[in-house]
Amino acid sequence: MKNIYGMTLEQLEDYFLAHNEKKFKATQVYEWLYKKRVTSFSEMTNIKKETLAYMKQDFSMQSIQILTQKEGIDVIKFLFVLEDHNKVEAVLMKHDYGNSLCVSTEVGCNMGCSFCESGRLKKVRHLETYEMVLQILEIEKQFHIRISHVVLMGIGEPFDNYENVIQFISIINNGKGIDIGARHITVSTCGIIPKIEAFIEDGKQVNLAISLHAPNNMLRSQLMPINKIYPIDKLIPILKKYIQRTNRRVTFEYILLEHVNDTEACALELAELLKGMNCYVNLIPYNETSHVEFKKSSKETIMRFLDILKKNKINVTIRKEFGGNVDAACGQLRSNYEEA
Length: 340
Ligand code: SAH
Hints:
By secondary structure, the protein is an alpha/beta fold. 37% of the residues lie in helices and 20% in strands. It is built from 12 helices and 14 strands. The strands form 3 sheets. A 10-stranded mixed beta sheet has the order 3-4-5-6-9-10-11-12-13-14. The protein has a two-stranded parallel sheet with strand order 1-2. 41% of the residues are buried. The mean pLDDT is 94.
């Protein structure tokens, strides 16, 4: 049995056509699910009983449960438990422009970035599409809020779960459903090149962010093993192609780690690497975790790094810090929960 929250509108249309019904049934069902937010088939009062009967046989509406939550200033962090008892996190951030939700895409992660807590648990499985959709729905339900922005920056590597992630984007972006604008959705990847190429072909108008974290192969390979397979000199040309084809700007995420990648030399090398690209750099103050040796760069170092990029005409911002006190670094809530 499939979970109905994993179905795109087009798939539901095909489903109804195959049952000799009008395509429009799918729109009606989408309205029940995403506009009226019913939680059972019997509440779908404009759908015939016979139709509901076979829908009930084919689809589940089972949700995912919030196991714990931790609240900080403008941030709430959630631990979800899935049907098979695996756990993933989501983080709700209150910005002045709206509520943004950081969703997980996998249980654990195999990318092995040395500074990241998520990878402490190796990938157990990918998330099904519906498990991503339900992270949004459950939080909206519990807090009676509307989530306006979604970032795929929780546990997991989105492009390691490419098909489901693309399907998830189609569902939440659909105007007849949750209707989150493409420009309000950001996919963050450590740089899996073949999937970036697929993403270019796919033509989704969502934002693309690249976890760069180092300006050269030597340093980046130390921090991010994926760089040995997809090194910077291969990554940058693909991103240039992305920019050219989509006319969109790429975001580079750069965590500042004290004495590791935060030196003046690194800043200059980064500016040189990105010179002339339609991009912007998001400097991320490192969220220190209890396990890892890395330290956060000082305020002065962060400002110096920012200045060097600015002087070299690179668009750059510093990411607002959320949730230092709520274990909000990727994977932290889960790993601290397991240990407690
Ligand atoms: N796998 C994807 C998305 C998940 S990580 C990716 O690599 O982009 C989302 C972002 O959070 C990445 O840029 C990641 O490097 C960063 N991140 C991981 N641990 C962090 C920490 N402790 N403090 C700050 N940012 C962190």
